[in-house]
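Q: Joint fold for the lines below.
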Amino acid sequence: MITRRGFVLGGAAAGTLALSPSAAGQMPRPVDTLPADAPVRHLSLTAAEMDVPLLGADKPVTRHFCAYNGTPLMRLRAPRGTRLRVDFTNALPSATTVHWHGVRVPYLSDGVAPITQEPIPAGASFAYDVPLPDPGFYFFHPHCDETGQVGRGLVALLLVDDPAEAKVPFDLEHVIVVKDWRLGEDGQFMEMFTNEGASTAGTFGTVRATNGSVVPPRIEAPAHGDVRVRAIVADSTRVIDFGCDTEEAAILACDGQAIPPILLDTAPDGIWRMGPAQRLDVHVRMPGPGAEVKIYDYRTAEPYLLTTLVAVDKGRKKRPFKPLALPIAKEVPLPDLKRAQRLDFLVQTAAGAIAVAPPLPPDDPLAKALIESVCVGDKTFWAINRNSWGAGADLRLPPPLDTLKDGQSYILSIANVTKHPHPMHLHGHIFRVLSSSRKKMPQYLADTVLVEPNETVEIAFKATSGNWVFHCHILEHMDSGLMGWFRIA
Ligand code: C2O
Ligand code: CU
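A: Joint structure:
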């Protein structure tokens, strides 16, 4: 019989931090990334279902859409250095958690059952401590039934502003959320997880949308002005080739971390490939009055229009294009490459790979932890180094992929020996993308990196104490085995 309850440590009940440091035994020490006197902002956050006319006003309304605070694809903004104290309430009919994607939080606020907390049952609450040490473009989403809940819309943006950015003279900021909807003819959500999809590229939505709308936005911007476009692939499955029909566009940041600008035109094929969870900041210079800039996903046979920027005369003069560089954040801990230890990982299919790793030793604080059947699927199609997260009916937490040392630098080599791309995400860290075996690319900081078939990508990071998962962000892949974890202490 499968137990539906996770583990309980120190008798903590739902609604409190499940793992208080004192009760945590040999659990890693949580690391606060802001000083204790950092300014605090209280946020009450509720996840609930609502009805949303996703297909348009004249079409049947979609029921059981999931949103935070009653706002589809909610956006939250805060200055760098702020601490969010989040009182979260789960008003959904099923268990959930909140994961702060890319944010360097103490791991007990990372939202991952069963290694940082228990799932939050329907009707229950949980307090998250979310320091925002680094400026950037983040998002948050559940980490329990993620395929189902994110599929039904449960994603929100978190923009962390650097005061120094305010000096960069953009005329306009435009956010593009790439997120399809998987709807039947009747406008109602269809099953998000399919065996066929989960074992291949993932199950796609049936209608495409930008910022929730099936009609791509048309945005007015000053002619000859400067627009900061901030794109995120919040879809569970789709990989896009981000590009636009002007030469005057430059990449400014990846996953919200500034890089010296790169002209989009000089990138291979003039596009930037982005998988689920990846973000991109781009500077677009507007053309003369009346002209338009069209931003596309060029990956599909017929390019999909994501947004049209329309130039309106505001008396601005034409001038040569020079990308507006963003300030580079100094707070992110950087790896020491000379002293880094190397670890090799293989992303593979589960067929023939399942090694069902030996369980954790009985005295391990997580020895009794179970992967919640309410949180993940019961199919196993993928593995990392022959281990799958939840191998079929075995719901024991697998042992960590490795035990790392707090403060030590590591180089992770990630080799994809499958036929599909995998956007690999490491929790709790912002890493440096070092190299790819298949393409030339600049080094940059990120929290998610796309690894293409037959490609090996190297990333490096300085390890921070905690239990952190490492997984593919194609959500059905994650739900069918493509996840492991590191214990860093
Ligand atoms: Cu946005 Cu573990 O994920
Ligand atoms: Cu994947």
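Q: Anything notable?
A: The chain has a mean pLDDT of 91. Residues 422, 472, 474, 477, 482 surround copper (II) ion (ligand 2) (CB under 6 Å).
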